[in-house]
Design goal:
Strand order of the largest sheet: 10-9-8-7-11-6-12-14-13
Helix content: 25-40%
Structural class: alpha/beta
Largest sheet: 9 strands, mixed
Radius of gyration: 23 Å
Shape: elongated
Number of helices: 12
Strand content: 15-25%
Order of helices and strands: HEEHEHEHEHHEHEHEHEEHEHEHEE
Distance between the termini: 37 Å
């Protein structure tokens, strides 16, 4: 039986890690492709400094915590570092965090989640142990891993984690009568959430029919994504039907990737593509574009998170392939005209997804699925 004093000690440890997790959230949308990481420096049971990875190219969490201590004039020798991810031991955009911890005289490091990246797995923890630092790992590991789930998923599968986002009217319709102009029917509050989903994604994918109908920009408006590259806009366009004047080809504000089948004829293009546009052929032997091939291509490029925005044919293709990890379904009380295609909870359930929670936002009902 664990003594009460030991239990109190473990509870204090967990609180320090929870604080590190909360700090890591401050870098959301801004650190991709790096994971969210937070760090707390503790001495004699008191937090002396805090840090988090704030933006791509910025200080890592451990480095920021050490800088925070320096700014306060607080010595770090003999302290314990609580960090949500195993410290790095390689030179990237910043020097290794292991060196920073050793320079700061940290005597003990408590790690939430080990780094699953095959190129660095265990290297940081081992380097610290060799240098005489006491290292423990696994504290609130599930919570830490969930916070950086896209990074963890990519490290394991080398393909992006897939989030499907769909908006439907009161009757499950996804669009009004084709003879009418396309209209937005979800609330402004729901649209803000959509932009947060885009900001949390490294790529956004639609079918060419969505481009023909809506001419979307597929950009992030609202959330601050910092200096990272905006999400790549991906269009499944087997035969090259995307109009040359579409925003995705002309605005230049974010990379655009067009995925074609073997039937695509580049000679039909009336003008060269802009620098932000890339075209690839990903067809199989039958001339189809398998979803698995799309994900493998994106994964090889380091894309960790993919938002599937539409339309119904694209949603169903990804669901049928069994690759959708989560779904965001927004149902509006508005009733659209016509009798167009429908989509809804039944489609998600048929694909093996389960409703996790449901909230009301601006009059809309948003359900989250996993």
């Amino acid at each position: 039986m664990r003594c009460s004093r030991c239990l109190d000690y473990m509870l204090d440890e967990a609180e320090f890690m929870r604080r590190a997790i909360a700090l890591a959230e401050r870098g959301r949308h801004r650190v991709m492709p790096n994971p969210l990481v937070g760090c707390v420096l503790v001495r004699d049971g008191e937090v002396i400094a805090e840090g988090w990875h704030d933006h791509l190219g910025g200080l890592h969490a451990e480095q920021m915590a050490i800088a925070d201590a320096e700014a306060k004039g607080v010595p770090t020798q003999g302290s314990t570092a609580y960090v949500t991810l195993e410290p790095c031991n390689h030179f990237g955009r910043t020097p290794p965090c292991t060196e920073a911890l050793l320079w700061a005289g940290v005597k003990r490091v408590v790690i939430g989640s080990d780094d699953p990246n095959p190129t660095v797995r265990g290297d940081g923890a081992d380097a610290l142990r060799i240098a005489g630092v006491e290292v423990e790992s696994g504290l609130l590991a599930a919570d830490c891993s969930e916070q950086m789930s896209e990074f963890m998923h990519w490290c394991e599968h080398i393909r992006p984690q897939v989030l499907l986002k769909a908006a439907i009217d009161a009757n499950g319709r996804v669009d009004c009568d084709p003879a009418e102009a396309a209209q937005r029917f979800s609330s402004a509050e729901s649209l803000e959430i959509v932009h947060a989903l885009r900001a949390d994604s490294m790529a956004i994918i639609v079918g060419v029919d969505t481009v023909l109908r809506d001419d979307p920009s597929l950009t992030v408006r609202g959330p601050d994504i910092g200096p990272r590259t905006p999400p790549v806009r991906v269009v499944i366009d087997p035969s090259g039907r995307i109009p040359s004047e579409s925003k995705l080809l002309t605005d230049g504000v974010a990379p655009t990737l067009l995925i074609h089948a073997d039937g695509f004829d580049a000679s039909t293009q009336t003008s060269p593509d802009a620098d932000h546009v890339e075209r690839v052929v990903l067809a199989d032997e039958a001339g189809e574009i398998p979803v698995a091939r799309i994900l493998a291509f994106l994964g090889d490029r380091g894309i960790q998170s993919l938002l599937v925005e539409g339309g119904p044919n694209t949603w169903r293709r990804f669901l049928a392939a069994g690759v959708v990890d989560r779904a965001h379904l927004c149902q509006s009380p508005v009733e659209l005209s016509g009798s167009g295609d429908t989509f809804g909870a039944a489609d998600l359930e048929a694909a093996g997804l389960s409703r996790v929670r449901e909230i009301e936002v601006g009059g809309d009902t948003i359900s989250h699925w996993s």
